[in-house]
Amino acid sequence: MSDNRALQRVNILVNHILQSSPTSSSNLSLTREICLQYSPPELNESCVFDVKEMRKLLDGHDVVDRDWIYGLMTQSNLFNRKERGGKIFVSPDYNQTMEQQREITMKRIWYLLENGVFQGWLTESGPEAELRKLALLEVCGIYDHSVSIKVGVHFFLWGNAVKFFGTKRHHEKWLKSTEDYVVKGCFAMTELGHGSNVRGIETVTTYDPTTEEFVISTPCESAQKYWIGGAANHATHTIVFSQLHINGTNQGVHAFIAQIRDQDGNICPNIRIADCGHKIGLNGVDNGRIWFDNLRIPRENLLNAVADVSSDGKYVSAIKDPDQRFGAFMAPLTSGRVTIASSAIYSAKVGLATAIRYSLSRRAFSVTANGPEVLLLDYPSHQRRLLPLLAKTYAMSFAANELKMIYVKRTPETNKAIHVVSSGFKAVLTWHNMRTLQECREAVGGQGIKTENLVGQLKGEFDVQTTFEGDNNVLMQQVSKALFAEYVSCKKRNKPFKGLGLEHMNGSRPVLPTQLTSSTLRCSQFQTNVFCLRERDLLEQFTSEIAQLQGRGESREISFLQSHQLAEDLGKAFTEKAILQTILDAEAKLPAGSVKDVLGLVRSMYALISLEEDPSLLRYGYLSRENVGDVRREVSKLCGELRPHALALVTSFGIPDSFLSPIAFNWVEANAWSSV
Amino acid sequence: MAVEMASRSQVLVEEKSGVRILTLNRPKQLNALSFQMISRLLQLCLAYEEDPSVKLVILKGLGRAFCAGGDVAAVVRDIKQGNWRLGANYFSDEYILNYVMATYSKPQVSILNGIVMGGGAGVSVHGRFRIATENTVFAMPETALGLFPDIGASYFLSRLPGFFGEYVGLTGARLDGAEMLTCGLATHFVPSKRLTALEADLCRVGSSDPTFASTILDAYTQKPRLKQQSAYRRLDVIDRCFSRRTVEEIISALEREATQEADGWISATILSLKKASPASLKISLRSIREGRLQGVGQCLIREYRMVCHVLKGEISKDFVEGCRAILVDKDKNPKWEPRRLEDMKDSMVEKYFTRVEEEGEWEDLKLPARKNLPAIAISKL
Asked: Per the database record, which ranges form the Acyl-CoA oxidase C-alpha1 domain (chain A) (predicted)?
């Protein structure tokens, strides 16, 4: 111990001397013996599988185009290139003021536009074009959530509303000009008083047949449009969601196009706009509030794919039932939940790649006297913190890809499934991201506090994902409600279950072995059986509890509210099983080999950590206390088995070094006096 | 001062206290790198790295070229004799040499007083210091030969400002010393008449800390004027066009620019793209784009896969045809196959980036282990 102290003291003295004469080479060699040196994890970690193949699986599509846009960003000075520790990084300067962040975000979008990134985003259709667009948007979000949100609002909310709610006249007038950013669109749905409950919004639109115009008004403060991305500074046009009153009858929520600024950026008459102010993240997006003071817009500006008003003021719609009309109306908006789910996973990947790379180069404490300090990821406890999250991120990566595939191949018949799956995935994946980022932040210690190191900052940048495009808790309730409806309808008509992955309910209830060996626990059939059993039993319990409550005279709505605990368990069981299925499917498609083997380990980790973390297995007795102990031991074993693959698994995320942060690489040199 | 000269050798070696001066000595072939030269350079570099008395390595060429590239004529001969694997061995050694230089723990000073092309760039640009002169002519002419910019070019071209690397790599444009310095391919510019004095000064370096060599070089370097018609002055146009997603889009962006102003440089650029091998253009663009996101080692491993596909000639035989038209028959009229860009499908491009399926053992390039590298040993651009 005293030897160590003396050594440390010498070290400090040597450093003092060196600072005054950094060229003295004889002293340099002395410091090398004493000082910590960064050793790139690549030197000590082996890689048993083809990282490129794994990356192709994870990204799923358009790998070449992803690389193209990564390159576009690294080569431009607009993306805040900086050198740290001999490497180039691109990442926004989050120390800029809100105003500066908004302007630079807009400039970055102009740059991407000029380079043809958005070509065909609204004027081309088909699964291939849609997937390409999703890939490019994902990369925007890896650079900065503000860029992807601002682009997303313009194309996916404003642009898709015009495309899907509008008809030929709207398409001709707006789609190309939107793609070229001649108009800048925003999307005014949420109000101060109503968010997830769109049907309750209070904005009112009436029709004036004498001038053939609609008149939009904000009748009270709670009806002001709120959080409207793009509204505070840049947008020239907006979609307005409003109740439509025709001759005293409320026909429900409809969407209109209104111009809010002229081409010079001046706010139009009868429009008032205020800023939402500084936020805990996402300050590159100019969220604003809008009031409409009897704004008059031409009759043609009603987006009339579902319903229309004739010039003499008659309301016409092919869909008579207002509930169905609303559903048909909102269906295309699923794209928001699809893009949020996938971008949440890419954010988690940035966090994990950084934290795991750091933990493969940072040491702390020796376990033997005078022995070397131990690499963070060689601590079983550190493995337990990060590797299960890594496995979940893998599984959810496949889930996000599957969601994208069913979205781009959507048909009217798949709308319901897309709604349910996207609701569950959006909620679970965004929650997973927030949890992962927090763990990664703590896992890199104090370095996680530095904005430049990204992991901490991303928490603020991505937090909003758990709320927008449907509050996560509301979405999970929708999942359980949809499952309930499906169950009731199948039982009533005495038909087998079909769709939503419920087919297993047609067979007999799976029986789990009482003794769980390691090989049982890692067997995909066993894993599938536990997940199915949990989903099936919870669905049966949930429906029977609702039936009981209804039998006691409660309304269906009140019964749902009362059963919120079961609803939560069920929503989670459904979503986790759907995720497991996607990674099993991906694994099944692979030829035998190292990629498949490693993915099998990852899948087992995903399955077992999900079981370990869910108290419902014990609560409802699907597993015994002894079983749960076996699961826990197996998780620990899997941590040790995944440890050698950790570096290769995060490298397979395919995120270029320049999009991670200095602590993921040579953090000694990045912090050296010479680079101050 | 010990001086060791082996006049018949293709690589001359001089020892001057802590400095080793290596001279490429194949002036009739413009110092094109033969298999022996590569092996010798590799052997010397590795030995110097271990030898604590060596502090600095100088590399230069005898005659009017630094080095005009790899010895592709020999490789094409091998291919024609059904021996593409021999060619693959040549490239494997060359890329390993490039990697050792890119990760070298001692400063390498390359004196580029003449032609620097292809493989010549590979043995210089990866090193710490590259000295351009008024005689320097740099180019990566591979797309006109049915090859692609290899030797780790996908690493250093992709790190040039903006999309200048795509421009240099796809068009084979020639750069002079001033342009090399401005874009970062060279680190210093020294008039040729001062090279002897510079060398003598460098030979006094007593430490492998690059700051010592740097101080000496800084005293000799000049800031040459970029010529008026330099492509580097057109970086805005280059960025607008060469940033495009595909080769086809790059050409149409250039053609759009050409309609806005009549300009000799733009039409020459379009012409060089239209004359190049369509297969080469497409794989080169993708290689540079991937290279931008990869380390130098990964770049070389990928390029080795690509070059093996080129040598094997299953997707396109443009390399043999390009060498025939430019180097052998010199009719400058290669018949490319696929003939047009649109015939070179994405799926065909994709194949160049996959492992080579081969009877018998084909393996990915195995790079030697390099220990404890400081970041500056790797990133030089």
From this structure: 333-483
User: Quick one: pLDDT at residue B360?
Assistant: 76
For residue A432 the two structure tokens come to: 């997973």
Q: Where are the alpha helices (DSSP H) in chain B?
A: 35-50, 72-80, 84-102, 119-122, 153-156, 164-171, 177-183, 195-202, 210-220, 235-242, 247-260, 264-275, 278-291, 296-312, 318-323, 346-351, 375-378
pLDDT at position B227: 96
pLDDT in tens, A32-68: 446 788 888 988 888 999 999 999 999 999 999 999 9
Q: Chain B residues with CB-CB distance to A under 8 A?
A: 158, 161-163, 207, 209, 211, 239-240, 243-245, 249, 286, 289-290, 292-293, 295, 346, 369, 371-376, 378-379
Please give the angle made by the CA atoms of A294, A299 and A304, to the nearest 5 degrees: 115
Q: Which of A67, A76, A114 sits opposite B290 (nearest CB)?
A: A67
Query: In chain B, what are the helix, strand and coil shares in percent, each to the nearest 5?
Result: 50, 10, 40
The Cα A572–Cα A585 span in angstroms is 20
Measured distance CA(A374)–CA(A369) in Å, rounded: 12
Other residues' Cβ atoms within 10 Å of the Cβ of residue B364? 14
pLDDT digits (tens, 9 = 90+) for A608-636: 999 999 999 999 999 999 999 999 999 99
Distance CA A519, CA A512 (A): 14
Per-residue pLDDT tens digits for A431-465: 999 999 999 999 999 999 999 999 999 999 999 99
Q: Are strands A271-275 and A287-292 parallel, antiparallel or unpaired?
A: antiparallel
Residue A428 DSSP one-character state: H
Q: Which of A86, A115, A656 sits opposite B379 (nearest CB)?
A: A86
Q: At residue B232, what are phi and psi to the nearest 5 degrees? A: -65, -25
pLDDT score recorded for residue A6: 55
Three-state SS for A240? strand
| For testing contact with chain B, the best of A68, A69, A117, A668 (most B CBs within 10 A) | A68
Instruction: Identify which of A278-282, A305-309, A665-669, B204-208 has the greatest average pLDDT.
Output: A278-282
**Confidence (pLDDT) at B357:** 87
- Which residue, among A18, A32, A64, would best test binding to B if mutated, counting the most B CBs under 10 Å from its CB? A64
Query: B98 exposed, middle or buried (CB, 10 Å; 0-12, 13-18, 19+)?
Result: buried
